[in-house]
Structures are given as C-alpha cells and as structure tokens.
Amino acid sequence: MERAAKWQNTKADLTRIFEANKGLATVVRKEVGDHLSGKRFAILALLVLVTCLGSLYVAASTIRTNVGQDELEFVFLRLFTTSGSSMPFSFLSFISFLGPLVGLTLGFDAINGERDRRTLSRVLSQPIFRDALINGKFLAGVIVISIVVFGLGFLVAGLGLIMTGVPPTLGELARLITYLVLSVIYISFWLALAILCSLLFRQTSTSALAGIAIWLFMAFFLTLLAGMAADGIYPVNDNSDSQQIIANAKTEQMISRISPAYLYSEAVTSIMNPAVRSMGPVLLEQAYGAIKGTLTFSQSLLLIWPQVVCLIAEMLICFAIAYISFMRQEIRA
Amino acid sequence: MNRGKVICTKNCIVSVVLVIAFLVSFLSFPCPAEAAGGIVLSTSFPGIAASAGENITFPLKLANNSSVKQLVNLAVVSKPDKWNTTLKGNNRIIHQALVEANSQTGFDLLVIIPPEAEPGEYSLTVAAQNENGATLDNLRLKIKISDNEVSNDQLKANYLELQGPSDATFTFKINLSNNGNNEQLYSLGAQVEEGWQVSFKPSYEDQQVASITVKPGETKSLDVKVTPPVNVQAGEYVIPIQAASNVSRITENLKVIITGTYKLEFSTPSGKLNTDIVAGRDKKVTMQVKNSGSAVLNNISFSAATPIDWTVSFEPKNIDSLKPGETRQVTATITAADKAIVGDYIVSMVAATPVVKSSADMRVTVKTSTLWGIVGFLIIVAVLYFIYQAFRKYGRR
Prior knowledge:
A: mainly alpha, globular, B: mainly beta, Immunoglobulin-like, 3 domains, five-stranded antiparallel beta sheet, five-stranded mixed beta sheet, rod-shaped
C-alpha cells in the first residue's frame, strides 16, 4: 500500500515536471536558431573549423611520409592524434583547447544578457515556466555543441579517409564516437558553468571573464599547483626511495584530477590510443612479464570509465546548481 | 750221362726263362702296346673339392714320348648327368691335339657343375684316342662336392652391433670377399620387418646398388644403411643381410640397438596459447603433455615463470610416468596479481623431467573487473536523482 502510494506520488511529481517544461520545445528551437545565426558563433565555428582542417592536413601528410617506417596500426585514429613538426597540435589538442571556449561563448550571457535587454520578464510573461527557459537554454547549447563536434569529427574522418584511403575498423569507429560523445559532455560542462556564471554575475563581461578565469585555472594552473602541493606533502630528491616517488606522483595526479580538463585529456588520449594500458605511474613489478599489445574497445572504455563518470557527474551537478540558483532568483526586480 | 744231364738241365733252364719271358711279355705288353704311341694324359691335381653351381677348370697336359709326332682326338668319355664339360685350348673349344715328338702340350677342361648337384663324389674321364678311335690314354678326374665346402666366400661387418636413438640412421661397413676361383655376381638383400629400410652402396660411392661383382680373391667394401621406422620402440633388432651368387649364399646378422629418445610436448589440447583473465582473479586452463619420444618419461613436474605476484598451480602437480605416445591433461590455474594492469602478459609454463623439458608460453590478456563500471553507473544515477529532486522542489515557478 505504502509503496503504491509512493509510486503515485512519484508519478504525480513526474507529471508536474513534465508540465513545467511545456514550452521547452519552443525555447530550444528559438535558442538553437539564435545561436546558429549569431555572428559570435559563426566566428568561433570558423576558427575551430580552420584549425581542425589544418591539424588534419598535418596528420595526413605525417602519416603518409611515415608509411613503411614504423608499424601503422590504427591509421584512422592517428588522423586525430598525430601532430607534425610544422603544427605541434593534433585534432585532439585543438578540441580540448578550443572546446571550452565554445561552451563558454554559448552560455556566458544566457540569463544576464536577457536581463540586460530586459527581455527576461517579457519571456516569462508568456505561458512558459522558468524550468522550460533554463532547461531549454542548456539543451539548445548541448544541441549546438553536438552539431559542431560531430560535424567536425565526421568531416575530419571523411577527409582523412579520402587522403589516406584506409577504412576504419568497427573498434576504431566505436572509439571515435566515444571520443566525440566525451567531447560533447566536456564542452557541455563549460556551457553549464557559463550559465551558472551568467546567473551569479549581473554584468555579461564579468560572467565571461569569470568563466575564462576558471577555465584558465583548471586547464593550466591546477597542474602546476598540483605538482607544488605534491612536492610539499611528499618531498622528492635524488635519494628518495621508490615509495616516496610513487606517493608524490599519485598525489600530483589526484590533485590534477580535480580539473575536468585533466580528466578529459586523460580519457581522450586513452580512448584514442589503444596501446595505452594504464594511467598514472606503473611499477616495474606490474610491467614485468607484460608484452606490447593493444586493448579492445571495451577494455579501453573500462579503463577511462572513472573519468567518464566524473565528467558526466560534474556536468550534471554544474547544471543542477545553475537550475536551483535560477529558480531561487528574483526576476521581476 | 752226367754231362748229358747237365746239358739237358741248361737247355731246360733257358727254355723255361724264354717261356717265362714270353709269358711275361704277354702279360705286360698289352699296356706298352696301347701306349705304343707314347701318349700320356695327366694333370697335377686330379681330385679336387668344389661346390654346386661352380665352374671348375682343370689344367691338363698331353705328353708325346714317342719319336714321331702324333694326332690325338680328345674327348670326355664319362661324366655325371647334367654336367657340362668343355675342352679348351688357346681359348678355343678343341677336340684334337697335335703333339710334336718328345714334347707336351697343355689344354683345359672346363667343368660346369649344375647348382642342384647333390653332395658326393663324382668322376669324369677324359680320353686321348688315335684316329681309329683306339684309346691311347685315359685320365680319371674326381670332384668332391660337400656341404661345408659350399662356400668359403665371406660377408663380414666391421661392427656387428650399432646403437643410437630412434631417429638415427645406422651405417654398417661390411666386407664381401670372393674366395672362389671365379668372378661372381652377388645380389644383395636384407630381411626386415615392415617400416625398416636397408640400402647397400659401395664404400666411397653414392650410388645405391642391388648387386655387385667381385673378382676371385677380391674383397669389396660396402656401406649398409639401415633406417628404422619412425615409430620404432626402444630395443634390439636383428637385421639379417645376405649376398647371394649362383654358387653361394652368405648371410650376416646385423644388430641395431635403439636407445629411447626423450621428447616431451607441452601445450594446450587445441594449441591455442592465449587466454583472458580478470586482475586478481584466477583462471583454469587445460594443458596437455605428450610423450612424443620413444622412451618412458618418469616424474614429470610442472612449473611456471610468471609476472610478479602472479601464481600458477597445476593439478595434478606431477605425473609419475608417461609412456611413449601417451598424452595426459593437466589443469593449470593462473591467478593474476591484484595490481596487474590491463593488457597482455606472458606466462611461461614448463613441464620438465630430469631428462627433458618443454615450455608453453601463454599470452594472458588481463581485463578490468566491471565492478567499478557498475559503481560509476550508480554514481551517475545518484546525480540524476539529485537533479530530479531539484526539479521536483523548485519546478513550475
């Protein structure tokens, strides 16, 4: 009886949540349209497109000159991971560098921009709830990010296929799709963070700056700080024993993993390179008897699973905080 | 009277002597009368021993002791059935000889003894006759055929017994001597069980031969190559070889001692040498030992060279004895270290006896436990529940 009552409650709640998002489709459609037609997005998309095509060209020419020199397994994946001497960035590094910028650009003025234009109260006077507005803005961002990421990914894959002529295996395709999904999740995290900033700061320039500051800290300074902190806790010099060195390395890694940028780079390098067997320090006793080989897709996925879980959770929590703070805000003032 | 008696006595003695002389001349003169021509047929060794199937040559002499030259017909007047004889002079078949006065001439009698001749004594008679067919002289020749004199040829091996492993080829050196008077063609052969191969070749030559000619008094050296069958068991094997000519059949028993070979094969029944394992767990792998040698293997024990902190245990721990050709299955339980990283490792398993050992390198792919995957999934579910609660609490404003 109690369980049935509980289920009735849940059902009622779900219906209420569903009804609260009645105008969601309209909001999403309008927001996606705004993004895609906006100049801001066009500039950013062009930048990303040009750099990605540049990295593809370098990767393809490097692969072609290296043919026969070393064993070229997973040529298809190398299109995304290879960098050349003239351009020291691969597709992977460009996406991890420019992706957060895309996310921040799409979200930094989501709410306070509406406020500035005094359109927020007008929108909410329409028969739509606040839920639909914030959910719709986030979903529209995610859709745009997906279009960009998947579009670029498959563009590069297709052009690479023409340039190298090596078709991907099923495992390689699965790895590529996993990589693209991970990129969407990662960029969506920055989108959620930007929306949160746009709620916390009234000025759009302040929220943009705050987003970029967090991104710079996460992407560049946290790893430096992690190294300093690890050296502080476990000082290492030339005479240190192996346990001390391992403790130092592990501490540095654990602190670095606070950053979603670090988690993302760990995850994508592992999923795009089947030869990666372990992240973090490997002891000699673990390596003894091990032979060179590659992992299957499922094993690689299991290897990066903690990172994947963390990225998804961070994105969802970031969005949830933005949602709650938006719901509790005074709008009409 | 006395004188008359004496004279009479003297006459009587003379006449008796004459009579006796006459009588004696009658008794003894027929022979000198036959040899009146002075023809004598002779040979140094009229009696010899021979073996059945052999060809014998008697050197004969014909002497003319008279003072006139004589024409003599020569013929073999008696001989055993089925024996063939030929008279030869100056390498031609002859039936007449012309002998100068007080001189002699030589010719040969070739006797071909049939192979089926029974042991015993045989005789032949050669006659010298004048043109009228009257016998001038006879010569009786005796040939003795006996069993133990069938052959004095020899087939002798330098080493009668050779020893080696089952996959070896044994080469015997044998000498074939023809101690007879004539050149012989010996056909060579061996009586072997199925699977054995025996081949003959003259020493220092490459060509295999089935027969060989040996001149009288000569010795030929032969290599006899014996190849045992592939699946031969350890033990002693007698290989009778023989050389047969049309006069003799000589045999020699060669002996090959096969010592056992010790060979051990260690693998999986299917030959597949890779497996999966989850870090920290164990995995049972069925292995197989096979005795592919020809000797019994005793006390086979198992061990493994593993990555650090891995263990491999075998059930049964060891095998007391394994007959040639026999296989036995062993279950190996591989336990991976907790800290083993994902990917491939090599676990080298060894089956060893005091004599031989064989190893099997197993490629073990370590997989991650899906437990943490489920934990991660639960974390995401918890976060989604949190969002649901947020929607429920703050929704519809």
